[in-house]
């Protein structure tokens, strides 16, 4: 479990909420509380206590360099205890964030050097439960959604909160 002060750069995808709802109906403990359906661009990101204006400007600048995008989610992926849905159209954005902050290992290295862009549907499932979640998520696909902005979020004692929102393909402003 992450500790308060942990940050992440994510693209929230509200239209993917039914995927998490399906997993929650099977076992609520499988879905992370306090964070909507999203694709993590870089997790963990710079610890909140070490974030600088340069980091925030870098996030805004990278967001502005990618256009908003219509997405088609079609494939469920599984690994031990994990169920997700791939979002391949966002892989270039994920790769750009990882290249900009090369010292930060995605997911602490647990899933290799280049994990696929995905929405996490369930974590911590035993094999039979993961199979049920996979089937439930698969019945909801294909799913269309739109990526329009990213968020830099930080974990607090009360849950995840947004520190900044940056539109994809938008102007870079000093404050947002």
How would you concisely characterize the structure shown here?
Helix content is 26%, strand content 30%. It is built from four helices and nine strands; from the N terminus they run E-H-E-H-E-E-E-H-E-H-E-E-E. Strand 4 and strand 5 form a beta hairpin.
Rg: 16 Å
Are there runs of 5+ residues with pLDDT below 50, and where? none
The outline comes out as globular
**Could you say which structural class the secondary elements and strand pairing correspond to?**
alpha+beta
The biggest sheet, with number of strands, parallel, antiparallel or mixed sense and barrel status, is: 4 strands, antiparallel
- Strand fraction: 25-35%
Strand order of the largest sheet: 2-1-8-9
> What share of residues is helical?
25-40%
Quaternary status of these chains? Answer: single chain
Give the strand tally: 9
Average pLDDT rating: 94
Write a structural description:
There is one protein chain. Helices cover 26% and strands 30% of the residues. It is α+β, with helices and mostly antiparallel strands. The strands form 3 sheets. The protein has a 4-stranded antiparallel beta sheet with strand order 2-1-8-9. The protein has a 3-stranded antiparallel beta sheet with strand order 4-5-6, with helices on one face. Strands 3-7 form a two-stranded antiparallel ribbon. The longest helix has 13 residues, at 127-139.
